[in-house]
Specification:
Bound molecules: pyridoxal-5'-phosphate
Number of domains of chain B: 1
Low-confidence stretches of chain B: 134-146
Strand content of chain A: 5-15%
Low-confidence stretches of chain A: 315-320
Distance between the termini of chain B: 17 Å
Strand content of chain B: 15-25%
CATH architecture of chain B: Alpha-Beta Complex
CATH topology of chain B: Sufe protein. Chain: A
Structural class of chain A: alpha/beta
Oligomer: heterotetramer
Mean pLDDT of chain A: 94
Number of helices of chain A: 15
Number of strands of chain A: 12
CATH class of the largest domain in chain A: Alpha Beta
Radius of gyration of chain B: 14 Å
Structural class of chain B: alpha+beta
CATH topology of the largest domain in chain A: Aspartate Aminotransferase, domain 2
């Protein structure tokens, strides 16, 4: 049986070209980049070049790029770092209800420390309204943190508009772009983004923005983020970025077509099922479908048995078994939130794979509904 | 994550369905938790002749429903009453700790069906208490029998 | 010219066996370990097994092992996490003056937050006196953090004694074992260690010890450390641990012999030069020599020109150009602290390499002294 | 980290040594900073005939000493006075930002040697101020000419 991986938003295989470029930094080029000898300089140069590449794709300057251990750390640093550095100015933070837990739990932590956080509602397609951002601003507001695109439902936020509002009110604007990168074109200067987090991991900090250090220790990353650099990871990230934006328009067109085919196929073939998230302002690789009367984990297990790896909500929370906070924020009742499934496509996704899912999903859903007491009730009530 | 036995009962659940004119029917769990179990029992001469279920829930919920119905078929009411969530979980070669609640749900569903049978027949079953939770009644308390939460 | 790498305490090449075991987790086994599908379970299992291996070598239980992005994060988490979790109990922390900056700067940060920190002196061989630890304990003491072995001078601390004192006074004991691991045998239970940091990165937290989360977000690491797991890194760490303790006694004997040969050779052949750190309670791979009248960076550059990669002080601080706080804590005057050089050996180090260093070092030092105004003054004064 | 020119002057420093009976000697920097530069000048008829140095310091300190002595040889006192730290750094194809202080040290060392020459000969050199820092006098102020700190 063919294995189809449709959870590329959770993790994705490292491309051959990326791994190849990383390998020497495990074995030959292992000198600590902070040292003076030649071997170390090779690594330092590799980091500098990676920084340049990454800066270029973000529209940033190299000295605005800081490497972290991942998206979660970048989010923690951005939010806690600003909260601490600007606490004399105010204690109010604006974010949304559908942020990743790396942002939400950090904000909740700050609430316990005496900060005030406004969690903006989103509309039923998962969109933050820039007007709501504007209305939430107070004198004490020091930070607006709105994700670039949501990891579960793929909705792309009106980042430029929010950036404009932040600029007009002179409030620092952070965006978690972990899911957006490689799928949309980002320009931090044009979009008035002051801080931006990437997975794998990177934090852009605009020149002039103060941030309290988050990880204290050695003088790496110009004294702002301590810890021996993960050279292979950094080099790999830059290469991955290059590949992502190579033939960008063409790739996005292809994957968007496959995405829409999958969405269309599912919602026409399966009754009582609908697309979660926005129809067009949507990541080109994201399909999130709410299927009534079935439960998500069972659905995923059955998909897996059929060789299809998908996810329900975000992978990071599957340990907690709670229904997705994102789907609840869209206004979905619990049973529908539980019955949602996310397929995230990759560049390598084929039409055959999409067709295979379209063949299997209706059967699996029918099988589950046949044993669902909710479906039984529904049928009886609608007889 | 799941034992082979759990996966077997999930993939090939025994006794899925309804029993028309069942002697007792019990539904427990709720949609908020993401797990609802409905158990149908056919009881004759104090013996559970047949059991069927329908379940909306995770892999563990389906497997425990399947196993619980398997275990009660052919048992007397009193014997069935003594099939605890532990025995269901053990019969499945164990469940992941976060999923132990599911086995409680299966136990409760059987009890609820027995309670329904007792009510219908106006009898009292020794040792059986009124089911704590029902999908139509109220929200589950936190941490009790909530499979997905 | 042969290249000799003598900075293994800074970074060390990844062993072939380790890289081989990591590789599949970049490409084939890429599923997010938190997901339900089969591919993810492969990764989950790999992490679980790594956790078991690592727990075994530390004398810990698997549920006491938490993966981090590195030693620095582990130190930050341990110290900030305890400070926050136990602040109702007290605000006093005991550490030493020669800790790594990951510990020191974290403690300095906490001082700004209202904590009180005692930085214990060390003797001239870099040893913390357990009696000093005992004397420093107050009612408000919530944490003792003393490194297992120092990264610059290799001195191994009396960890078991300090652990005993901590236990008797019911104070939590953290040790930074980044440099010690693989070089000494560690048993957290026997040694009464409550928290232990490893590079690459791991934090052992004894069952029952509360720690505030440091990186907030997803539910990874049983809800205590958020962020997508670095599966190749984790798998590699476990393998490296296994290799380090394979034929342990024999390897330690060999490397200790080479170390002592290098020390002996240097201090007999080069006048006005002495060993920094303890003679015997010393990491088997560490040689740190104070050379009078010469400056460290120049020395390193000349060594590098001769194909020898060494370091002065810790690599992590070389960005800052300050003389090493560790050497200053030993009582060395600034000029001697500046003129110290560290050679850290590896399993692969050969006698030929040691001999080569012994051939080159005296020439290099002589050359530097010939152009040193301090040496000129010294000679004139002693004519 | 260093340019090729810096590395060349570090590996093959020009004018290392002492000048016996020098016209002027200047020492700047201090051990705390990790950098001490001593410059010897031989001055005849207002022209710097020869310059030598000894330096305890980092690669940049050695290279700037070497370059500074190269630059002043053959110059008049006034010309030498106008050789700034910037011109030394430029002549070396630049220095890393953290090392720019070192070039300041080289400028100061030349000035100190000229000051010594002026004092010995009881003359005044226009535009020359008393050297700010000397190894024997006092600690360097933070951030001024401290090469390694
Ligand atoms: C939107 C978003 N932010 C942050 C993160 C956290 O990134 P990481 O797991 O790399 O730390 C994720 C991870 O999936 C994400 O999707
Ligand atoms: C003793 C000690 N602690 C902590 C660290 C920091 O570890 P990392 O750089 O892996 O974050 C180091 C690094 O060299 C170290 O030597």
């Amino acid at each position: 049986m063919e294995k189809i991986y449709f959870d590329n938003a959770a993790t994705t295989p490292v491309k051959k070209e990326v791994l190849e470029i990383m390998l020497p930094y495990f074995t030959e080029n292992f000198g600590n980049p902070s040292s003076v000898y030649h071997l170390a300089q090779v690594n330092k140069k590799a980091i500098d070049e990676a920084r340049e590449t990454l800066a270029k794709y973000l529209g940033a300057n190299t000295n605005e790029i800081f490497f972290t251990s991942g998206g979660t750390e970048a989010d923690n640093w951005a939010i806690k770092g600003i909260a601490e550095a600007y606490k004399a100015k105010g204690n109010h933070i604006i974010t949304s209800k559908i942020e990743h837990h790396a942002v939400l739990h950090t904000c909740e932590y700050l609430e316990k420390q005496g900060y005030e956080v406004t969690y903006l509602d989103v509309d039923e397609e998962g969109m933050v309204n820039p007007e709501d951002v504007k209305k939430a601003i107070k004198d004490s507001t020091i930070l607006i943190s709105i994700m670039y695109a949501n990891n579960e439902i793929g909705t792309i936020m009106p980042i430029s508009e929010i950036g404009q509002i932040a600029k007009e009110h002179q409030i620092i604007f952070h965006t978690d772009a972990v899911q957006a990168i490689g799928q949309v074109k980002i320009d931090v200067k044009e979009q008035n983004i002051d801080l931006l987090s990437l997975s794998a991991g990177l934090l852009y900090i605009k020149r002039g923005i103060k941030t309290a250090p988050f990880i204290h220790g050695g003088a790496q990353e110009r004294g702002r983020r301590a810890g021996t650099e993960n050279v292979p990871g950094i080099v790999g990230l830059a290469k991955a970025m290059e590949l992502a934006y190579d033939h960008f328009e063409e790739k996005i067109k292809n994957i968007t077509a496959l995405r829409d085919e999958l969405i269309q196929g599912l919602i026409t073939q399966i009754p009582y099922c609908k697309l979660n998230g926005h129809k067009t302002q949507r990541l080109s690789n994201n399909v999130n479908i709410g299927v009534e009367f079935v439960e998500g984990e069972s659905l995923l297990l059955l998909l897996d048995m059929n060789g299809i790896a998908a996810s329900s909500g975000s992978a990071c929370t599957s340990g907690s078994l709670d229904p997705s906070h994102v789907l609840l924020a869209l206004g979905l009742p619990h049973e529908k939130a539980h019955g949602s499934v996310r397929f995230t496509l990759a560049e390598s996704t084929t039409k055959e794979q999409v067709d295979y899912v379209l063949e299997k999903m209706p059967q699996i859903v029918q099988r589950m509904r046949d044993m669902s007491p909710l479906y039984e009730e529904f049928l009886k009530a609608n007889k | 994550m799941y034992s082979e036995k759990v996966m077997d009962h999930f993939m090939n659940p025994r006794n899925v369905g309804e029993i028309e004119e069942a002697s007792g029917v019990g539904t427990v769990g709720n949609a908020k938790c993401g797990d609802i179990m409905k158990v149908y029992l056919k009881i004759e001469e104090d013996i559970i002749q047949d059991a069927k279920f329908k379940t909306f829930g995770c892999g563990a919920a389906v497997a425990t429903s399947s196993m619980a119905t398997e275990l009660v078929i052919g048992k007397t009411i009193q014997e069935a009453l003594h099939i605890t969530n532990k025995s269901v979980a053990e019969a499945l070669d164990g469940l992941p700790p976060v999923k132990m609640h599911c086995s409680l749900l299966a136990e409760e569903a059987v009890h609820a069906a027995l309670w329904d049978y007792a009510k219908k027949n106006n009898i009292e079953i020794e040792g059986l208490e009124e089911p704590k939770a029902d999908v139509h009644d109220h929200d589950h308390q936190e941490g009790t029998g909530c499979c997905n939460g």
